[in-house]
Amino acid sequence: MNAWCGSACITRALTMCAAWVLLGILSATSVAEIHLPQSDATRPIYVRANDARHWQDGEQEVWILRGDCEIVQDKTVLKGKDAVLWIEYAQPFRLVPHKVTVYLENQVNVTYRDADAGRVQLQDASWLGQLFTTSRIQLPVDPTKAPPAVAPAIYHRGRNAQPSDEDFAPKEPIQAPIQQIQFEGGQPMPPAFSVSQPQIRVRLLQRYSNGYQLEVDTDPNTGETIAKFDAGMNLIVEGLGELDTVSLLADRAIVWSKNGIEGLTGPEGVTGDGAYELYLEGNVVFRQGEQVVYAERMYYNVAEEYGTILNAELLTPVPEYQGLVRLKADVLQRVNRDRYQAYGAAITTSRMGVPRYWFQSNQIEYTDQQSTVMNPITGEAQIDPLTGQPKIDHKRLATSRNNTLYFGGYPVFYWPVLSADINDPVFYLNKISFKNDDVFGFQVRTEFDNYEILGIDEPWEGTEWVTDLDFLSERGVGVGTRFNFDQTYFPYFNNPATGFLDAWGIYDTGKDNLGADRRSLTPETDLRGRVWGRHRQMTFFDWQFTGELGLISDRNFLESFYEKDWDTQKDFDTSFELKKLVDNQSFNIYGSSRVNDFFMQTEWMPKLDHYMLGQPLLFDRLTYFSHSSVGYARLRPSTAPEDPADAATYDPLPYEVDVEGLVGTTRHEIDLPMELFGSKVTPYALGDVTYQGQDINGDDLLRGYAQGGIRGSLMAWSVNRAAQSQLLNINGIAHKVTLYGDLYYADSSQDLSRMAIYNNINDDSQEAFQRRFKFNTYGLPAGTPVPTAVDPRYYAFRTNQQGWVTSPVGEIADDVSAANLQLRQTWQTKRGGPGNEKIIDWIRFDVGGTVFPDADRDNFGETVGLLNYQFDWQIGNRLNVFSNGFWDLFDDGLQTITVGSYINRTQIGNLYVSYTNTIQPFETQLIIASLQYRLSEKWFGGLGTAYDLKENTNLGQNIFLTRIGESSLFTFNFNVDTSRNNVGIGINFEPRFFATGQYSKINGEPLPPLGAYGLE
Q1: Nearest to residue 531, comparing CAs of 556, 562, 504, 564?
Q2: Distances 770 to 568, 599, 646, 765 between C-alpha atoms, Å
C-alpha cells in the first residue's frame, strides 16, 4: 500500500486510530459521607497518645490509641481518650496525599477553622472525620511491634461508623451519636453512581433522496434476523456513553440481530441493548464527535463496541494540537474496549491529496486505560457537572513497529519500535535543526525523547527525559541528556520534588571565537562540557532542601557554547541549602564547594542564617527586622587563563584575594511607622556588628555599623472624567503622584576597602568582564585597579545597599549621609468595549536622585548623584514609546540615555527601534532596530541591526526569510557578527510536525500548525 503519514503529533494521532468506537460508562461505588476540617494539606500530621498498637490491614495501616489522644494538623486539633486511625499512604510517584481516617471516643474535643464560621469547636461522645497531607505523619512508638490477637471493640465501632464498603462489617446500632464536621456547610454531596446498563437507541434513515432497498431474512440455524440494505442507508446510534452519537453511512449494508429489526426503520427507532452487528461497504463514512472515518468496508458490533475497518482514512483532532491529523490504514481493528490495532498504517498532518511527507508503520497497537479522576485533597471521585457522572481519565499508550519517515516519497528515517503516551504533545524526535556559520561550521542538532525511543510505556510521572545528539563540523560531535522533574515523588520521600539534571559534552577539535581580541583561543581541555542540576523539595520537619550541581570543564566553555546561559543564568555552583519558614522567620543552613577553579567563588562550611521580618513590638507601635549569620568561609580567587591572548587581558579584581576564616554578622532595624499630615513617615534605626577572621589583608576584623534616618511617602491624585479622545484612545484620566524620600546618616568603624567580599557582588560573567574592563576601556597596565568611581563596591554603597536588613552583601557599609528622593507618577485611563472597560497605565513617568551633603567623602565631589528617570507611554494597544536614563555628574560616572518605540501585531509581526547615547565611562551612540513581518501566507521575513554612530562601526546584522511550506519551514539566513568577524549564510530546516507545542515559532512569532485553517 502506498500509505502516507507523518506529523509532530504522530503518536497523539494514534489515539484516534479507533475514533469510530464508543467509550463505555465507568462504574463507581457510592461516595463516602466523610468530610474533613479545613486545614492545609501541605502541613504534617502529629499524633500523640499514652499507648499505641498498630497492624497492617490490606492497604491500610491501623492504629489503636489509648489515653489522652491528640491529632494535630495546622490549626486543626482533635482530642479524645481513645482513637482509631486508618492510614492510607500515598503511592510513590503519584500526586495523591496521604489519607488518615480518624475515629474518636470519650471526651471528644474538636477544634478547626471553617471558611464561613471561622474558629469552630465541637464536643461530643464520638467523632469521625478525615485528614489529608502531602507531608509526613508523625506517629507514636508502638512498643509491642505485634498486632493484637483480636481487634478491640472500638475498632469495630469505628468501622461501622464509616459508610458501607464490601470489606466493612454490617452496621450495628451506635451507642453514641457521631458528630461529623462539614467541610462546607449547606452544600450537598455529589450523587451516588450506579452501574445500570445503558439504553442504546438505534435509528435507520435514508442516505440519499431516493430512499433505500430493504430485504429481511432469517438464518435457519441461529434464528437471527438478517437485513440487507441497498441504495444507501444512515444508521444513528445514541446513548453509548461519553461520545454519545455515532453516525454510520454506507451504500450497502447487512445487519444481524437476535431480537429482530421491527421498529428500526420507524421515526423513533429502537431502544434496548443495541445487540446489532453490521457489515458496511461502499463509500462508508463513520462520524463520532469531531472524528470522521472514510472507508471501503467496515464491520461493527454496536453493543460490544468492537469492529474492523478496511482501507480506512481518518480525519481527527488530537490532544494539544490545533490542526487535524489524517490516518490511513489497510486494516483498523478494535480487539476489545481498551486495545486497538492498525496494520499498514500511515499518518500525516498534510491536507494535500498526495502529501509530501508521512510517517508509516507496519503495525500500531493502541491501548486506552480508563480510570476515575480523584480529588487529590478529599480522595473522592470528581463529578462532571454536566453529566453528573464521574470524570474519566484516559491513559493512552501506543506502540508501533517498523517505522519509516518519508519525505517527497523517499524514506529518510527508520526506527524498529516506538512507544509513547498519546496525550504527550511531542514526537520521539522533539526537534531537529540545521545551521551553518564560521564558528561551529555546519551543524545538525537533534533532541530525542528517551521514554518513547526506549519503549517505556509508563514513564515516571512528572518527568521528562531527552537526549541531544549534535554534529558541529568545525568542533566535533556533542552528546548530552537532560532530565526534568516537576512535582515528582522520589522513593522514600513523602513530598514532591522539582528540578533538573542537564549534561552535555563534546571532544572539541577547534578553537573558541569569543569576539574582539579573543577570536582564536585554544581550549584548556579537549574534552569539554557541563553537568548542571538542581533539586528542591520539602523534607523532614518542614525543612526545604535545595541542592545544586554546577560542573564546567573550562572557563570559556559556557561563553562559547551556551552564551545565553553565561549571560543570564545564575552562577554554576555546587551547594546545598536547608531552609525552614516559621511565620515571619527563616532559618537557613547553607554549604558550598568550589569545583570550578577558574571562577572566584566562596566556599561555606557551612553558613547559618536567621531572618525575622516585620515583627510587631510595643503594642504594634514598633516594627522589628533582623538578620544574623555565622559560618566558616573560604574566598578562592580565580586562576589565570592558559591561552596567552586570553591571559593578556586578565587581572584579578581589587577584592579578589585568597582568605578564609570565621565570618559572622548580625544586623537589626527598628521602625516607628506613623501618619503625619496625611503622609506616611517612618523613623528608623539600623545597626550591625560584623566579624571576619581574615579581612582583605589577611588580618582579623571587627566592624560596628549604625544608621539612622526617616523614610516617608506622600500620595496625591486627581480624576478628570471629561478627558475623552478617540485618537489617543483615552476614556477619562486619573493622575496619581507619589513622593518617596529616605533621609539617613551612617557611621562605620571600618573602611569598606578593608572588607573581604565573601558574599559575591556580581555573577561570574560580570566579573569576567570587569577583569578585562581596565585593559579594553581605560588601557591600564596589569596590577593597576580601575578608578574607584566604577568599582562595583562603591556603586552598591552609594545606592544604600547597607540600609537593607536583607542585603545579600553584608560587607557593604561605610560612613555616609544622604537623602534619596523619588517622584513616581502614573496616568491611568480605561480601554475596551462598552461594559468591558479595563483600567490601564497609560503613561508612567518616574524620576529620582540622591543628595550627598558630604560630597567629597560620599560621591566623588558631586553633591547630587544617581539621577534617573523612567518613561513609558502606551499610545495604543499595540504601540509603545519608552525612554530611560541614568546620570552621575562626576568623572567616569555612568551617563546614559535611551529612547525607543515598539509596535506589535500578533501573527503579523513587530517592529522595535531604540537609540542609546552613553557618554561615560565610555562613549557610544548605539542604534538597535529589528523588524519581523509576515509577508504572505507562504513567506515570513525579518531583519535586525546594530550600529554605533560614535565609532561609525557596524556591530552586526541578521536577515532571514522563511518559506512556510506544507511539511516544513525553510529559513534562508544571512548573519554578520563584526566582533567575531563572522559572516554566515545558512539554511535552517524545521519540520512543522515536530513542533513541541501548539505553535511553531519563527524568531519568536507564533505560527499556527499545519491544517489549522483547513487546506493551505
Answers
A1: 504
A2: 16, 13, 14, 9
Please, are residues 926 and 947 in contact by the beta-carbon 8 Å criterion? Answer: yes
Give CA–CA dist 620/639, Å, rounded.
53
Measured CA to CA, the distance from residue 14 to residue 18 in angstroms comes to: 8
For residue 840, how far is the Cα from the chain centroid?
A: 28
CA distance 572 to 594: 10
Report whether pLDDT(42) > 50: yes
Strands (E), 135-244: 137-138, 178-180, 200-206, 213-218, 225-230, 233-238
3-class DSSP assignment, residue 508: coil
SS3 796: helix
pTM summary value: 0.66
pLDDT in tens, 357-396: 676 788 877 666 656 666 554 556 666 665 566 666 656 6
Q: What are the pLDDT digits (tens) for 469-512?
A: 999 999 999 999 999 999 888 877 778 899 999 999 999 999 99
Distance CA(77)–CA(51), nearest Å, equals 19
Percent of the chain with pLDDT over 70: 79
Report which of 665, 577, 657, 669 is spatially closest to residue 622, judged by C-alpha positions. Answer: 669
What are all long-range contacts of 773-781, with beta carbons under 8 Å and residues at least 24 apart? 774/651, 775/648, 775/649, 775/651, 776/516, 776/517, 776/649, 777/921, 777/922
CA angle 443, 449, 450 (to 5 degrees): 115
992 CB burial (10 A radius; 0-12, 13-18, 19+): buried
Residues 6+ apart with CB under 8 A from 938: 963, 964, 965
Mean confidence (pLDDT) of the chain: 81
The pLDDT confidence band at residue 29, using thresholds 50, 70 and 90, is very low
What is the DSSP code string of 397-440?
EEEEEEEEEEETTEEEEEEEEEEEETTS---SEEEEEEEEETTT
Residue type for 351, please?
R
Identify the pLDDT of residue 363.
80
Contact 489, 94 (CB under 8 A): yes
Cell numbers linked to 927: 542604534
pLDDT tens digit string along 875-934? Answer: 988 899 999 999 999 998 999 999 999 998 877 888 999 999 999 888 999 999 999 888
Phi, psi of 599 (to 5 degrees): -115, 150
Instruction: Specify which residues 900 forms β-bridges with.
Output: 882, 914
Confidence at residue 994, expressed as pLDDT on a 0 to 100 scale: 45
In contact, 576 and 588? CB cutoff 8 Å: no
Burial (0-12, 13-18, 19+ Cβ within 10 Å), 388? exposed
Decide: 638 and 594 in contact? Cβ < 8 Å.
no
Task: Give the tens place of pLDDT for each residue, 563-617.
Answer: 989 999 999 999 999 999 999 999 999 999 999 999 999 999 999 999 999 999 9
- Residue 828 sits at φ, ψ, to 5 deg, of -115, 150
CA distance 511 to 518: 10
Q: 901 Cβ partners below 8 Å, 6+ apart?
A: 879, 880, 881, 882, 911, 912, 913, 914
> What CA–CA distances, in Å, run from 660 to 491, 632, 657, 1001?
39, 7, 10, 50
Q: Is residue 330 within 8 Å of residue 364, measured between CB atoms?
A: no
Phi-psi region of 6 (alpha: psi -120 to 50; beta: other; left: phi over 0): left
Beta carbons within 8 Å of 940's beta carbon, 6+ residues apart: 932, 933, 934, 961, 962, 964, 1002, 1005, 1007
